[in-house]
């Protein structure tokens, strides 16, 4: 980053965070996924026993919490496998643009349909290094047999390690956003910091450069999708 841009980013940080009890500690680039997790400070590459991916990355603290959860799950006969972890904006743009080009229909509807399960580039929690997908991208997997056992274990135990399921089915609290994703789990102690920071420093001017970006504002993706997450279970343990 050029020094002028860096100074501006730092200035914005200081100016928006001075009134906050819990100031944002991440850069705008980190919040928007504009970095390479393979080279970025604070990220670890996951060992192959934890993931199906050849290369998968999480923030150190998230990885440490996951390893503890993985071990305890295994002791209980439950196998947790990360099938997707940190995805940067460039990668997410690839997913989004492929869907954009293959989905038919008018463009506003098209963006809405992609958004049922996929994030607009720049709005994904996978950018933050705090979230990952486990075992299967089908809710049905988690509804019987082995998958149900995994899901029941997670709903009972994940909060002890700081994890929760942000995309639950809709209810009075969560009435907008992605459909339910039983596979997507988030490390609350860090993710909440990213979400707060997002709301302070990201605007629709930052969500550009992909097919259909102009619908981000009319679909109000920040309010409906970035903030369209479940309530934190009271059992989630917060270290700080
Ligand atoms: Zn996910």
Notes on the structure:
This protein has 240 residues and is of the alpha+beta class. It has a single domain (22-226), classed as Muramoyl-pentapeptide Carboxypeptidase, domain 2 (2-Layer Sandwich). It has helices at 3-17, 28-32, 60-75, 89-102, 107-114, 145-157, 188-201, 215-218, 221-226; strands at residues 43-45, 57-59, 82-84, 131-134, 163-164, 184-187. The strands form two sheets. Strands 3-4-6-5 form a four-stranded antiparallel beta sheet. A two-stranded antiparallel sheet has the order 1-2. The radius of gyration is 18 Å and the shape is globular. It starts with a helix and ends in a 14-residue tail after the last helix. 34% of the residues are buried. Mean pLDDT is 90; it is low at 11-20. Zinc ion binds next to strand 4.
Tally of distinct domains: 1
Total beta strand runs: 6
Strand order of the largest sheet: 3-4-6-5
Average pLDDT number:
90
What amount of the residues lies in strands? 5-15%
Q: Please trace the helix and strand order, writing H or E for each element.
A: HHEEHEHHEHEEHHH
Name of the CATH first level: Alpha Beta
Shape: globular
How much helicity do the residues have? 25-40%
Cα-atom radius of gyration: 18 Å
- Total of DSSP H or I helical runs spanning 4+ residues: 9
In a nutshell, what does this entry contain?
With 240 residues, this protein is an alpha+beta fold. It has helices spanning 3-17, 28-32, 60-75, 89-102, 107-114, 145-157, 188-201, 215-218, 221-226; strands at 43-45, 57-59, 82-84, 131-134, 163-164, 184-187. The chain has one domain: Muramoyl-pentapeptide Carboxypeptidase, domain 2, CATH 3.30.1380.
